[in-house]
Design a protein that fits this description.
Blueprint lengths: L1 H9 L5 E3 L2 H9 L2 E4 L2 E8 L5 E9 L2 E5 L8 E5 L18 E3 L10 E10 L2 E12 H18 L4 H14 L6 H9 L11 H12 L6 H4 L4 H16 L6 H20 L4 H8 L7 H16 L8
Parallel strand pairs: 6-9
Antiparallel strand pairs: 1-7, 2-5, 2-8, 3-4, 4-6, 8-9
Helix pairs in contact: 3-4, 8-9, 8-11, 9-10, 9-11, 10-11
Length: 307
């Protein structure tokens, strides 16, 4: 059953570089995470309806995580495949942002290959492969892997909770439901996570630097700053002469961010006209009138802490 859970998890990760909580799961479920530039694949067909793919790593350039009692210079692993070992087509997918694997390799740029492996008896299984990762993403992923691997060894529940919560925030990721539900079960979380002032400050800093993933955490705590940020974006867009789809989309998302999707009232008139901004069948002239209306709504939106 443990192996089956690993296969199911694959469905949410194998086709993308995940910047959400699934990446945390991939790290924690791996026995070994390595980097290599010297590797090959071998395909063996056992009959007329199935095949097996093997990964042969001839040289390991760097070990990012190793929970095994051995040190390896090379290895051979079975590669799990969509359509052979699992079927992502019948899976509904996962929430969160996903960065698609790149299709074009640019000359003179450095790329990295990272392999996530599990050891089942005497067999290595490559259940997640990041191929040709650009340097900036590689540095970010390496930091996440190594810092989370340190936390993994903490046995004290309170300390592990605190360190993992810091890890989420420092990496600009909202705590996932598995994390929240487990620590509710352990009694460390009641209704909501109680963040420290330092954690709020770090989240706000990341937000100002362009990371919007932590918005649900800081929206109420720093509402005035959040509102001012998005009102500025909306005003800048509304002053442009030639608007395109991305302008309407960003305007709509800015209104949603301040109003919390108009308090999640999906049948309200403001929600309905907000959705029209990204409707390609609706005229741009009418959309400009909608933008003017929504900007007034957002500017007058009350601080939820004062309601």
């Amino acid at each position: 059953m443990k192996f089956l859970k690993t296969v199911i998890f694959l469905l949410t990760t194998i086709n993308c570089y995940s910047q959400n909580s699934n990446f945390r799961k991939a790290i924690l479920k791996s026995d070994l995470i390595i980097v290599s530039t010297n590797f090959t694949y071998d395909t063996i067909r056992s009959n007329d309806f199935s095949k097996e793919i093997y990964l042969k790593v001839n040289k390991i350039n760097r070990v990012l995580k190793n929970n095994l009692p051995i040190t390896l210079d090379s290895l051979k692993a079975t590669v799990l495949q969509d359509g052979e070992d699992f079927y992502s087509g019948i899976y509904d997918g996962s929430s969160g942002d996903c960065i698609e694997m790149i299709d074009v390799i640019e000359e003179y740029k450095i790329y990295y290959n990272v392999f996530f492996l599990k050891k089942e008896n005497d067999t290595y299984i490559a259940y997640l492969i990041f191929k040709d990762i650009p340097s900036d993403q590689y540095i970010n992923y390496t930091k996440q892997i190594e810092t989370l691997s340190d936390i993994e060894s903490i046995s004290n529940t309170q300390q592990r909770f605190e360190k993992t919560l810091d890890w989420f925030i420092n990496n600009g990721i909202m705590p996932d439901t598995d994390f929240i539900d487990f620590y509710k079960q352990e009694g460390l979380i009641t209704n909501d996570i109680q963040y420290s002032d330092l954690q709020y400050q770090e989240a706000l800093k990341l937000f100002k630097n362009g990371n919007k993933a932590l918005l649900p955490m800081i929206r109420n705590k720093h509402f005035k700053e959040i509102k001012a940020h998005y009102v500025q974006i909306m005003e800048e867009i509304s002053k442009k002469r030639d608007l395109d789809y991305s302008d309407f989309y960003n305007f709509s998302k800015s209104a949603d961010a301040v109003t919390n999707d108009f308090n999640n009232e999906y049948e309200s008139i403001n929600t309905i006209i907000d959705d029209l901004l990204t409707n390609t069948c609706y005229s741009d002239y009418k959309k400009e009138a909608i933008m003017e209306h929504l900007l007034k709504i957002v500017k007058n939106w009350k601080d939820p802490n004062q309601e």
